[in-house]
């Protein structure tokens, strides 16, 4: 099982990237959001992966952040949601937006993704709602829900620090998640907060 790749970004296409790891090029399918987050060709990248094994092929799907990979796994367990549709959903919605849409039963938000009709959007809500926790009605996702999507040991503390500095919960959670993706789950609290502040200020 290949769970993560670290290497140089060799090239990108409409729905994939090629990552050069020690002279071996790995073709990795990806959402448009992940492709945009990888940066310029030739730069060092780290990408979380899911390996799809079929009778006649082995494919890799990549994600800029671990929570995107986790959502991909959840989505592809829903009947009627294959890899292409899951990536379309993750291209249209940030993980936190998707969490909020599912928790609040907002099938119209999910149906914004290419290839997702109202019936499939409703099925996604029905099958995933009990698996992801709830969000306050009419409001943004709660801190508990945000922390559930952040995996590092200091993610919750960094999130709290940014909110105490005046950032909104959604802004803080996106910034901390992005910082954690860059630094890794073992980053110190100081490094995580500093990078998250720079990302939130952009």
TrEMBL record:
Stretch list, region Domain I: 1-64
Pfam families hit by this protein: HHH_5 (PF14520), RuvA_C (PF07499), RuvA_N (PF01330)
BP term (GO), one: DNA repair
MF GO annotations: ATP binding; four-way junction DNA binding; four-way junction helicase activity
Listed GO CC annotations: cytoplasm; Holliday junction helicase complex; Holliday junction resolvase complex
Keywords: Cytoplasm, DNA damage, DNA recombination, DNA repair, DNA-binding
Subunit structure: Homotetramer. Forms an RuvA(8)-RuvB(12)-Holliday junction (HJ) complex. HJ DNA is sandwiched between 2 RuvA tetramers; dsDNA enters through RuvA and exits via RuvB. An RuvB hexamer assembles on each DNA strand where it exits the tetramer. Each RuvB hexamer is contacted by two RuvA subunits (via domain III) on 2 adjacent RuvB subunits; this complex drives branch migration. In the full resolvosome a probable DNA-RuvA(4)-RuvB(12)-RuvC(2) complex forms which resolves the HJ.
Protein name (Swiss-Prot/TrEMBL): Holliday junction branch migration complex subunit RuvA
Organism: Sphingobium psychrophilum
